[in-house]
Amino acid sequence: NSKITSGNGRNFRFGINSSMSFNKTSNIAGEAGVFTNNPFFAANTAPVLTPYNPDGSYAVNQGLFGQAAYALNYGARALEQTQEGARGRKQIKLISSVFSEYDFDDHFTARVMGGVDFTQNNSTTYTNPNTYYGSTTNPGRSGSLGRSIANWTSLTTNARLSYKNTFDDVHNFSAYVLGEYVGRFRESLGYT
Predict the structure, then answer these.
(1) How many Cα atoms occupy the beta-carbon half-sphere of 34 within 13 Å?
(2) Predicted confidence (pLDDT) per residue in 158-178, tens digit
(3) Can you spell out the DSSP letters for 84-99?
(4) Distant-in-sequence, close-in-space partners of 16: CB < 8 Å, separation ≥ 6
(5) Do 142 and 131 contact (CB within 8 A), yes or no?
(6) Cβ(62)–Cβ(48) under 8 Å?
(7) Angle at CA of residue 187, ends 186 and 191, nearest 5°
């Protein structure tokens, strides 16, 4: 974060305020979703269903008592997807504004301000082709890799002319004339 303000000490002031951030998140596939690959299925599966086969592989095709058609082991599928898949995001954010003010006299002041709020998200999702959910992916039944980039920009500018005066030492009067522009722009691109 940075903030700079200055002026001539009498009738002119200006300033800039900026902040920039970067964050990186790594999530598990299916997090915050209502799907059978949600990781909470692993906790809500019948306790008699083990998530692993005797050879250490995931018991994704086994049901209760080894019957594939009865009580499928969604917990094993969710565990496999949680450990073998990925979902992540890298985000850059910039917020900046500038202003300048000029006092023409004791009553009239002009002010101009502009600001930008920019956010860019780079996202990745991955489903391992050697997992149960990777084998059910269409087309190709060979997992998936998805990437996307999205930009959001908001621009704000305004100009103001103000008048203020005190009459008879008890009556305060203020008047403003102002104009403002707000623009919001979004673009995105993604592929799987």
Answers:
(1) 0
(2) 999 999 999 888 899 999 999
(3) H-EEEEEEEEEEEEEE
(4) 2, 3, 4, 96, 97, 98
(5) no
(6) no
(7) 145
Q: How confident is the model at residue 69 (pLDDT cuts 50, 70, 90)?
A: very low
Taking only the tens place, the pLDDT of each residue in 40-56 is 555 555 566 777 778 88
* Distance between CA atoms of residues 132 and 60, nearest Å: 7
Enumerate helices (H) and strands (E) in the chain, giving the number of each.
3, 6
The structure tokens listed for 2 are: 């940075």
Report DSSP letters for 34-79, one per residue: -STT-THHHHHS-TT--SB-TTSSB-TT--GGG-TTSS--HHHHHH
| Residue 139, phi then psi, degrees to nearest 5 | -85, 160
CA pseudo-torsion sign 22, 26, 29, 34 = negative
Most distant CA pair in the chain, distance: 94
Q: Is the pLDDT of residue 58 over 50?
A: yes
Sign, Cα dihedral of 32, 38, 42, 43: positive
What is the spatial distance between Cα 82 and Cα 79, in angstroms, rounded to a whole number? 5
Q: How far apart are CA 13 and CA 4, in angstroms?
A: 11
Q: Which residue has the higher pLDDT, 192 or 156?
A: 156
